[in-house]
Amino acid sequence: MSDVASYSPRTAAWARRRRSFSDGISRLRKDRVAMIGLVVLVGFVIMALIAPWMSPRGGLSAVDSINNPTWHPPSRDFPLGTDHLGRSVAAQFVWGSRVSLLVGFAATVLTITIGSLVGISAGFFGGWTDAVLMRLTDWFLVIPFLPLAIVLAAVLDRSIWNIILVIGVTSWPSTARLIRAQVLTVKTRLYVDRARALGASRPHIVARHILPNVAPLILASVTLAVPIAILTETTLAFLGLADPTQNSWGKTLEEAFGAGAIGRNAWWYHFPAGLGIVAVVLAFTLFGRGLEEILDPRLREEGARR
Amino acid sequence: MSRRLIGVGLMAGVLFLGTAVPAVSAQGSTPDDGDRVTLTIGLLQDLSSPNVTVGYLVSDFEVWNLQYASLTDKAAADFETVPGLAESWVASGDGLTYTYTLREGLQWSDGEPLTADDVAYTINRSRDEEWANHYSTVQNLDAVAIDDRTVEITSSVPDPKLPTMDVYIVPEHIYADLSVDELASYDGLDGVASGQYSLTSWRSGQDWTMTKNPNWYGRDNGIDQIVYRVFTNGDAMVAALQAGEIDAAHEVPRSALERLQGDANIETISGEQGSFTELAMNGGAGGIGDGHPALQDLVVREAIAHAIDRQVLFDRVALGTGSVGSVMVPSADPVWTPTLAADETFNFDPARANAMLDEAGYLDTDGDGIREMPDGSDPLNFRYVERSESEPAPAIREFVTQWLSDIGIGTEVQVMDDDQLYEASIAGEYDLFVWAWTPFVDPDPQLSYFTCDQLTTNVDEPGNNDANWCDPKYDELYQQQKVELDRDKRIEIVHEMVKYFHDNATYVVLLEDGDPQAYRTDRFEGWLRQPADTGPVLFSNSSPTYANLTAIEGGSGGGGGLSTGALIVIIVAGLVVIGGIALGVTRSRKTADDRE
User: Fold this and answer.
1) Mean pLDDT along residues A248-276
2) pLDDT tens digits for A214-232?
């Protein structure tokens, strides 16, 4: 009887959530491709976090490298060789992961925040709000993304925060559309109608019924927005629009290109950064797809997959 | 007459696709392209303006050198004054008046006769309207056309530059119709030339074409047109040169020189004509702009000069081209540049720099590694501007910013294109910037830039004084050398000026630049260096190389085959495109299949 006494809608909901969470984890565990993505990701995040211990910052300094050979291929002293100023490419790779991941995550937070706010408001309130917000979204969607980002980056001062801002304000529209669509379906479900009939306020409905139901989708789009943000940061840095004092992988590529590494066949200069970007983006995409399949029931087709 | 030296574009990626892809087309694979013999030159700098009253870049001067003949020309070997439009001249007894006799039958490229009136018109108008590129030459001159072939030029003061006349003679029948305001915004594309070639088309950021002027007085070199192709990446330009799509290249990346030296059909040179790269410090003596107050203190500027290891910049950035920076170079002729003794220069000594700043009261009171003003206010955080078009700029910045940080000075790096930096620099709206000058033969123009007269106090009348420097002693010396007819005495005065300018640490000369150039030897012969043995073949002081070239019969160059370099460049370009498409697809797919 005590079980019955402690039984409430809240505990039931939590029990259900716990169940579906552990269910999701075990599904994810079985998804080997997603797990590979996760492992690679965790590896890069750890590398970014322990960069100061892995490679002293002096390795990035041209002044501290004046006694190093220039254009030196990988060797015991320089595991990834040296660049045109004698700086260690390995140090640039390790430190570059910091900026690339930071920009990737921070820009994604911005993208998802704007996208979710716009998407939920448009979907939930409908009517005029929806029309106005969706036209704005359409407007952002039809502007060619890269030129807009380039123009914004060129107009603003070159700093890492402005790059984050540029990526954030240019890449939210698809998230907004996605979330609006989900809100529209959730909104028409019976329990939302019941809650409304019981007199629940709008904030209550949004917070307790809509948000939990679109949260998985938001999470999935986070994992897919990060690689786009990282690629965009790389592109902008490669075009010389990023903060020139921040070592990112895009900047390494730009410097390698500008210093003539390609013409010299100094592959060790540009390959690590390029492969780093490919690996992180791929890992995010693999993990993100896996997560999306678990969180989005429509993509869940048992046995049909792999 | 400013003459700025420019490097590589960093906006590479975007524009690069535009230049790299045509590089593999069959364009210009032989010098004899159909009926027209074309000389193709690759470079990294666009024109700023073909308008002779407006432009200021080295590339602009190359256009004018070809399009506009001067009364006198300069010998390729040693800059000696030789006949140009004028075939001869005589000086009056007092040395103030020169009478020039023009060649017979001179014509503009459009068939109009070129007479003494055109000459007098150009000189008088550029004096009256103070055309930036002529003014230091014509300031005290008055020209009178005696008859069609005789022009008399009188100077109000003794003028050591005469009889040399560095004035681009422009067609009166075109320019007379342009008012002062119209001239300021004139595009300069009339195509009427008194020189060897006329500019017939200019596609900004891509290329410009100069077409032979059949009416030019000099030697017919048999080359119908010269195409200048603007590259945004040095590697792409080198690949095009190796593939034979261009015949010569200006500002070849230093890292590629070694590779080109292995090519039997390509000659590489490091052309020296007095160019230098400076770190300019806004000393504020000119009283314009918004420079940091600390830089007005000579001690701070001296400390910065002591913090910079110019030998390292020479070894690591210039890769041994040119020479170690020392003082502002006023002329392409080294006789005008003083050699400083070791104890007269700001040697690399960070400990001393730190001690100087400590003593002067610039202490780091809040412990953030950056010094503050003696009264504890403003930290010594300086804006550091570099050019987006410069190939060595990023490497220079890596070194200089750290050296500054080693003496407790912070930097905030800003990247500007040439037009932005030009405007900021002449307005004094900077703390530090890195740019370069290429001087003329006579030291007067380069020295004139730092006189009080050249300060830009009114944006409609820009001057060249980008150092925000104004000093009565310097101005007085400038006026003295301007009228000193004894060459040795004048050299002495110029040396004193250059030393004085150096001692005031307004410019820290980082490098004396050698311009790496490369040309194919299998298509054209007769490439001339100016001055002989050490100078550049292209973009030299009076561009004598073009009249001396001859196409080699049957010279086809590397033509068809693609070099490895070109191939890699294409592959990279392809990857960028594929990456872009993939990005687009990911984005659009996400929106498409996740929508309900």
Assistant:
1) 89
2) 888 888 888 888 888 999 8
Using an 8 Å CB-CB cutoff, list chain B residues near A255.
Answer: 394
Partners of residue B259 in chain A, C-beta under 8 Å? 263-264
H/E stretch holding B174:
helix B172-175
Q: Does 3.40.190.10 match the CATH number of domain B3-67+184-271+515-578?
A: yes
Which candidate in A264, A265, A291, A292 is best for mutational testing of the B interface (most B CBs within 10 A)?
A264
Query: Using a CB-CB distance cutoff of 8 angstroms, which residues of chain B are in contact with residue A231?
Result: 579, 583
3-state DSSP assignment of residue A280:
helix
Return d(Cα B18, Cα A194) in angstroms, integer. Answer: 61
Q: Do B402 and A61 touch (CB under 8 A)?
A: yes
> Which pLDDT band holds residue A297 (cuts at 50, 70, 90)?
low
| Cis status, amide bond into B531, omega within 30 of 0 | yes
Does A260 contact B595 at a Cβ distance shorter than 8 Å? no
At B436-446, the pLDDT tens digits run 998 988 999 89
Residues of chain B with pLDDT under 50: 1-3, 5-32, 557-561, 588-596
Determine whether the interchain pair B316/A66 forms a contact, defined as Cβ–Cβ distance below 8 Å.
Answer: yes
pLDDT digits (tens, 9 = 90+) for A29-71: 888 888 999 999 999 999 999 988 888 777 788 888 888 888 8
Beta-carbon contacts of B322 under 8 Å, excluding residues fewer than 6 positions away, are B270, B272, B275, B314, B511, B512, B513, B514
The answer to whether domain B72-169 and domain B276-513 are alike in fold is no
pLDDT of residue A296: 67
User: Quick one: pLDDT at residue B21?
Assistant: 34
- Three-class DSSP category at B274: coil
Give the model's pLDDT for residue B477: 95
The half-sphere exposure of B284 on its side-chain side, counting CA atoms within 13 A, is 12
Per the model's pLDDT, the better-predicted residue between A27 and B562 turns out to be: A27
CB contact under 8 A, B415 and A240: yes
| pLDDT for residue B372 | 93
Strand stretches in B27-149, DSSP E? 32-33, 36-43, 72-74, 81-83, 86-91, 97-102, 141-147
CB B552 within 8 A of CB B534: no
**How far is the C-alpha of A165 from the C-alpha of A162, rounded, in Å?**
5
Report yes or no: B420 and B282 within 8 Å, Cβ to Cβ: no
Give B276-513's CATH code, choosing from 3.40.50.11930, 3.30.310.80, 3.10.105.10, 3.40.640.10: 3.10.105.10
A47-305: which CATH architecture?
Orthogonal Bundle (1.10)
ipTM above 0.85, yes or no: no
Distance from CA of A62 to the nearest CA of B (A): 6
Query: Residue B517 forms beta bridges with which residues?
Result: B269
| Cross-chain residue pair B572–A262, CB shorter than 8 Å | yes
Q: What is the rounded distance in angstroms from the CA atom of residue B262 to the CA atom of residue B564?
A: 14
Residue A304 has pLDDT above 70, yes or no: no
The reported pTM is: 0.80
Which residues 241-270 of B have a C-beta within 8 angstroms of A? 253, 255-256, 259
B543: left (phi over 0), alpha (psi -120 to 50) or beta: left
Contact B591 A257 (CB under 8 A): no
Class of domain B72-169: alpha beta
pLDDT of B582: 61
Contact present, B85 and B102 (Cβ < 8 Å): yes
By the CB < 8 Å criterion, does B419 face chain A?
no
Task: Give the model's confidence band at A1: pLDDT under 50 very low, under 70 low, under 90 confident, else very high.
Answer: very low
Per-residue burial over B397-408, b = 16 or more CB atoms within 10 Å of its CB, e = otherwise: bbbbbbbbbebb
Residue carrying the six token digits 């100094």:
A266
Q: What ranges do the domains of chain B cover?
A: 3-67+184-271+515-578, 72-169, 276-513
